[in-house]
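2.7 Reproducibility. Because tokenized structures are sensitive to small changes in the input, we list the exact sequence used for Pyridoxal-dependent decarboxylase domain-containing protein 1, including any N-terminal residues retained from the expression construct. No trimming or masking was applied before prediction.
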Amino acid sequence: MGKNLKEAMKMLEDTQRRTEEENGKKLVSGDIPGPLQGSGQDMVSILQLVQNLMHGDEDEEPQSTRIQNIGEQGHIALLGHSLGAYISTLDKEKLRKLTTRILSDTTLWLCRIFRYENGCAYFHDEEREGLAKICRLAIHSRYEDFVVNGFNVLYNKKPVIYLSAAARPGLGQYLCNQLGLPFPCLCRVPCNTMFGSQHQMDIAFLEKLIKGDIEEGKLPLLLVANAGTAAVGHTDKIGRLKELCEKYDIWLHVEGVNLATLALGYVSSSVLAATKCDSMTLTPGPWLGLPAVPAVTLYKHDDPALTLIAGLTSNKPADKLRALPLWLALQYLGLDGIVERIKHACLLSQRLQESLKKVNHIKILVEDELSSPVVVFRFFQELPGSASDPSLKAVPSMAPPAVSQERNSCDALNRWLGEQLKQLVPAGGLTVMDLEVEGMCVRFSPLMTAAVLGTRGEDVDKLVACIESKLPVLTCTLQLREEFKQEVTATAGLLYVDDPNWPGIGVVRYEHATDNKNSLKLDPEGEKIHAGLLKKLNELESDLTFKMGPEYKSMKSCIYIGMASDEVDISELVETIAVTAREIEENSRLLENMTEVVRKGIQEAQVQLQKANEERLLEEGVLRQIPVVGSVLNWFSPVQASQKGRTFNLTAGSLESTEHTYVYKVQGSGVTPPPTPSGARTKLRLPGQKPFKKSLRGSDAMSETSSVSHTEDLEKEHPGGPEQDALEVNDPKASQEVKQIGALQNGAQHQEVENPQIRKPGSRDLRFIYPVNSHL
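Resulting structure tokens (single pass, no recycling of outputs):
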């Protein structure tokens, strides 16, 4: 018994243990993602997965994205990341010597290339990270007790960081978040409003702000200047800013794309002054076309302890290995290769500037053309009688409503132009941006894109050709906008919708009978009408493009009319829209009411037929209704009863008698159907001429053409000419009769006059037929 009990307990324990193991495996396998289950995957499958993630699935539509031109220098930079991971496995002594050599070489090369003598370098992946470290260094330098007392020192004397109004967006917020400072520690310095560039810092106003902060007990800490603003590439007057910073003991930091020109032989004085600043941030990756290369912040400071506390230097070998990709790429390119790439980008910008100066209706916004490799341009056109171009206004709030409306129109057209150029010339690397004063503009910055996209001089020429090809469309559309607005406003049933974001001729909405003008909600009936209207307009096969979408600031449907490449008859376009929409509304209303009309018509027909049967019963009598007696009576005295019925006229919506049909054996209608809505004017279109196109000749020319064709037809009918058809009138009385014939009324088509004394030469007799209102 004991042996059997032991075996039974063992069997139960084994079963329970297997169950727990199976449940455990199920739980574990359910928690682990699919790619990690099992014994792993091979390298081919992993690389295939990476490729699918990079390029997308085959079912997805390919997206037109910019493809980087990764040359050999790019492969060298990418190789640096793999070598960095391999080098980190070396022993500590070899790793320390190698990383120190890489860091010192790269720092020396960059300082020599960009003319920043005796500087140190900090390599970082985030471009703004270097400036945040510089701010920490400035805080530690100006606040000696900051390490001990911390925030209490800053509370007693708040630091102030000065940023230009033209600085890149989000820079001030990023610095406050990284440094733990409140937003009042930032001071936004406005740009010039009266003299100089509108994208350069106002130095006089800056000095006034610094004096005010000192009087309030604050500490001016750091000033961020621009050598090429993020928007239009303008350079601040760095020389004067440096003097101001030395006067008030402020740290001067410079950043911008124009710092790349320091590597060239000729450098403008405004950019060359940046070599005297306390620190600067360089981005050699996009300048030289190097992917995954860190940005560099060069600075000058004598205290290594403070730089270590601020995070600008590090004892970790991994931090020093950040410079390895750039160390390899700089050696591969050499000084000539570096200068050649930067010079090529500057030549591209100059080439575009010179070409755009010759193009009408294109305004270049960069004023300092010699020192800025950035080209910013926009389309503008001053219409007759309109306000001047809004880009010339210094204060947009003071502009009149006409200028504001004209600016919105130009902004929409410039946005369209930028998007079109980006699609047609992807190697140009264009960017569409919205400036506060000028409005929507297109920017060409080859220093940031040429090395990556492989932009060449042919691409610039293609870009200029595309701009010239789009100008007729832009000018024609802008001229037709106001005419379209006036025509729509003057047309009953149409509402002009002012959409500042639409670049086409305009937006129009049809107001149907039950349209609630005060409501902003979706209108199903209006959407149905506009959908049918869109279908009808697209069937016309005109050069205009039509689309339907929600109204600006509401959910109601509208018809959006696209760009016009040629002269468009706006009156015909608006009239066609109004007539077609009205016809669609009437047809839809007829279909909706058809069921109710037919039902009421059937009921009325039944009532009338029942009344007719009662009248027939009274006329024939009761005896004729008895089967046998009625047959005998009808045989002796037949009744001539007429066929009476009813027909329902769908056009008129009324009942009519069928007596006319049985009598005359013809089915007719007594009511004429209403005419189809049509325009007030019927335009004669030449063969092959598309809708909404203006004729080459006016209405006078058309009437002249009709007269000429009518004369040619008369000459074909009478080829002999008027001399051969001349009449001999021998009798004065006959001549008087002819004059009386000409005075007859227009009611008769022809009048016949017989007179033996009116003869043609060589004819015995003449029967004269005189058509009224024609030439005798």
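The longest helix spans residues 570-620.
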